[in-house]
Amino acid sequence: MEKEAKDRIVRNVLLSIIIYTLPILLMFLYFYITGQKPWIK
Q: Is pLDDT of 39 > 90?
């Protein structure tokens, strides 16, 4: 496999992981800042 193609695949995988996990991380950050614990109710 060419180095350019391999680099492109690695970059796309990393971007996909970041895009997937960003909303989850933001949700937990929001709960931490506001002190809300909706899973307890």
A: no
| The pLDDT value given to residue 7 | 94
Tokens in use for 15?
């971007």
Dist. CA 19–CA 25, nearest whole Å: 10
Cα gap 40→3, rounded to integer Å: 50
User: In whole angstroms, what is the distance from residue 25 CA to residue 31 CA?
Assistant: 10
Residues whose CB falls within 8 Å of the CB of residue 36, separated by 6 or more in sequence, listed in order: 30
3 state DSSP class of 11 = helix
pTM of the predicted model, to two decimals? 0.62
Quote the DSSP letter at residue 4: H
